């Protein structure tokens, strides 16, 4: 079984993917990083040179490829009972091309959903590498986060489980995953 970590930019997906991977002794893949390595170009450059629709197409193909690669490493018995890998998605991944439905059909989706203030605090420090927010002023960023989250919430809410506290420990996160496994 594969765990897909979803949530807004700055929600902590990469942080938890690394922590869970170490704790559970399973591989993790950061989808953005996978796309950058595969295409040999940064996410910002993909947006700039090819446009967002091309990025979204690459992103949808990438989830399926990464999922296939992780599943290929395993046997059928393991597949049913164990967490085999963690995929850290981009913030928009679930919201395009029926990716959310596809992920829910193929594994557990865990929505990391800290407060807007926490997201803002983190993104203010990391704006430049994210094409959707790189050109926004600090003031505009707050409104952008609020608006985009409102748009994306109905999709994020389709997740198997939610993590709401920004200081959730890896132990607690694993408990949430175990509970989510019973819902699958
Ligand atoms: C995006 C989030 C980014 C990256 C791209 C688009 C989004 O990933 O995929 O810049 O649409 O929210 P992170 O959530 O890892 O920053």
Describe the structure.
With 184 residues, the chain is of the alpha/beta class. It has one domain (2-183): 3-Layer(aba) Sandwich (Rossmann fold), CATH 3.40.50.300. It has 9 helices and 5 strands. The protein has helices spanning 13-24, 31-39, 43-50, 52-72, 76-81, 99-106, 116-125, 138-156, 170-183, and strands at residues 2-6, 28-30, 85-88, 107-112, 161-163. It has a 5-stranded parallel β-sheet with strand order 2-3-1-4-5, with helices on both faces. Shikimate-3-phosphate binds next to loops.
Helix content: 55-70%
Biggest sheet features: 5 strands, parallel
* Class from secondary-structure proportions: alpha/beta
* CATH topology category name: Rossmann fold
Q: Tally the helices.
A: 9
Mean pLDDT: 94
Proportion of beta-strand residues:
5-15%
Instruction: Give the strand order, joined by hyphens, for the main sheet.
Output: 2-3-1-4-5
Note the topology.
Blueprint (H helix, E strand, L loop, with lengths): L1 E5 L6 H12 L3 E3 H9 L3 H8 L1 H21 L3 H6 L3 E4 L10 H8 E6 L3 H10 L12 H19 L4 E3 L6 H14 L1
Parallel strand pairs: 1-3, 1-4, 2-3, 4-5
Helix pairs in contact: 1-9, 2-4, 3-4, 7-8
The protein binds shikimate-3-phosphate.
The site of shikimate-3-phosphate has 10 residues, from loops.
């Amino acid at each position: 079984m594969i765990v897909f970590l979803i949530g807004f930019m700055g929600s902590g997906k990469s942080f938890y993917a690394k922590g869970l991977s170490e704790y559970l002794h399973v591989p993790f893949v950061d989808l953005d990083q996978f796309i950058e390595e595969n295409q040999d170009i940064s996410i910002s450059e993909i947006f700039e040179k090819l446009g967002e629709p091309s990025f979204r197409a690459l992103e949808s193909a990438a989830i399926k490829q990464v999922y296939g690669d992780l599943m290929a490493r395993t046997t059928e018995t393991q597949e049913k009972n164990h967490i085999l890998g963690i995929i850290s998605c981009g913030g928009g991944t679930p919201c395009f091309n029926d990716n959310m439905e596809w992920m829910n059909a193929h594994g557990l989706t865990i929505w990391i959903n800290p407060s807007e203030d926490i997201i803002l605090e983190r993104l203010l420090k990391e704006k430049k590498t994210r094409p959707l927010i790189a050109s926004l002023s600090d003031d505009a960023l707050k409104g952008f986060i609020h608006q985009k989250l409102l748009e994306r919430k109905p999709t994020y809410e389709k997740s198997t489980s939610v993590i709401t506290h920004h200081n959730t420990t890896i132990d607690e996160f694993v408990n949430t995953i175990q509970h989510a496994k019973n819902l699958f």
